[in-house]
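Need tokens for this chain, all 251 residues.
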Amino acid sequence: MIETMENLKIDINCDLGEGIGHEAEILPFIGSCSIACGGHIGDMDTMMETIRGAQRHGVRIGAHPSFADRENFGRRTMHLPGEVLIASIRAQLADFGKALLHCGARLHHIKAHGALYNQTAQDAATAKIYLDALEGYREGALLYVPYGSAVAAAALQSGFNIWYEAFADRNYRADLSLLPRDERDALISDPKKVLAHVLPIIEQGRLWPLNGPYREVHAHTLCVHGDNPAALEILMYLSRELPKHKVLPIK
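Here are the structure tokens for all 251 residues:
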């Protein structure tokens, strides 16, 4: 969140290039996007198509590497040898770099996907491996990471530039981990509930877990998942309602 004299400002991001097929509708309502780069889904064609769409709408472009696990869409916990995970992440980012170069686009950020995101948040060893894989991007890209996470602490210590991220359409547990997707109420689909969820994060730096007292958080960017069936409805609603609360989405 960025504060000005009269308004608060927040980036809204979305994970794209994941085969959902509604990027053209979503892009006008977001400030940044994280594009699948072949680990959990995606190929050179989908990367370039999504990059070009982001360019048309002035949306900041990020890479979205994951465990190389297409069968489970990158959402299965995996414990890989460090050198294997590093090689996989670097290969995905190299492919994404080729797509960026072909489109004449610039990399704004890197955000891990799914189980890799969660493991780097909770496990310091995985976070270190992940950051080792990103060593070549230390100066050239932001990292989107959750507040209070293992990867955020390690990234700051290692000299990476970060944006804290919170999830607009996901409920949290008291320890600030996400409620697992197979549990009831993990996903928030009602736009009004999404707004009620994100306003305390933006205005007060407070997140209310599904069960438990509030937790302090900071967020520069809020994610609405592209595969949320209500993603477009949520984004359109936030674009209308946030300015009424003196919160301006960053474009």
